[in-house]
Design a protein that fits this description.
Blueprint lengths: L1 E2 L2 H7 L17 H9 L3 H13 L10 H34 L1 E6 L4 E6 L8 E5 L8 E6 L5 E5 L1 H4 L4 E5 L7 H5 L17 E7 L11 E7 L4 E5 L4 E2 L4 E3 L3 E5 L1
Antiparallel strand pairs: 1-8, 2-3, 2-4, 4-13, 5-11, 5-13, 6-7, 6-12, 8-9, 9-10
């Protein structure tokens, strides 16, 4: 994909945006789908067959209500629990999709706040300290002179210890240099007319959290330079930025 060029990405690749959904059901499919899921469990099938047999007077002297009613109660409680859990997932998805993110707008040539669900591959994103990373990012620059940042990955792997990430030396400091000496690091959000171009080739999404193979060709106000990227330059979606004023990277 192209870096900082939505028009070319849409023309050549048409990647998905950052919208996520983890729900199982919607208003239309809930009753049918949840009902089928209940009978994908063998105990429920067993009790259903038992209830059918007991409803035949010649076969069973017992009342069919003695097995049908408990089955209805069990199915009802399970379906209600599924509904509550799915509503919680829906609310969590909405919270993530509506989160505000600083993204570089190529038309207005400045960083603007947008919804997380509107982020597109290749765009430039700024993440502030203690914010959750809204999408997988490759680091270009950080507020640290060494290009170092720290992330908490407990939401992905359960580890509380902070992990260190670092930008490549080719791009490290590039965005800090664009700020005048009178500006503070946090004023990087006021940067305008970033002439950044490039192209990235890397792995497709996969479950390997600690591995990334790829290479990029990138230029910031100058000719393109090529270098490989690895997991050391990647911030994963859902991790939290720590002890770093800001990080800028591409999606």
């Amino acid at each position: 994909f192209f870096i900082n060029n939505n028009q070319k990405n849409k023309l050549h690749y048409n990647h998905k945006n950052n919208y996520i959904t983890t729900t199982k059901y919607n208003i239309i499919t809930f009753l049918l789908k949840s009902f089928l899921i209940q009978f994908a469990r063998l105990p429920n099938v067993y009790f259903l067959l038992t209830a059918i047999i007991q409803s035949i007077p010649i076969v069973s002297p017992l009342s069919s209500a003695s097995s049908i009613l408990p089955l209805i109660v069990v199915l009802g409680v399970s379906m209600i629990r599924e509904l509550i859990e799915d509503i919680s997932r829906h609310n969590y998805d909405k919270l993530n999709n509506q989160a505000r993110v600083w993204c570089y707008n190529q038309i207005q040539e400045q960083f603007l706040e947008i919804k997380s669900e509107e982020i597109k591959i290749g765009e430039l994103i700024i993440v502030k300290n203690n914010m959750s990373i809204p999408c997988d990012l490759v680091i270009l620059d950080t507020s640290s002179e060494e290009g170092i940042c720290y992330v908490e990955t407990s939401s992905l792997d359960g580890e509380k210890g902070l992990k260190q990430k670092i930008s490549n030396k080719i791009t490290n400091g590039s965005f800090r240099k664009m700020c005048s000496s009178s500006l503070q690091n946090t004023d990087i959000f006021k940067l305008r007319k970033i002439a950044l171009k490039g192209f990235c080739q890397c792995d497709k999404p996969n479950p390997r959290l600690n591995k990334l193979d790829g290479r990029i060709s990138i230029g910031i106000h100058n000719a393109l330079e090529k270098y490989p990227i690895s997991a050391n330059q990647m911030l994963l979606k859902g991790t939290i930025l720590k002890h770093t004023d800001w990080v800028i990277g591409f999606v």
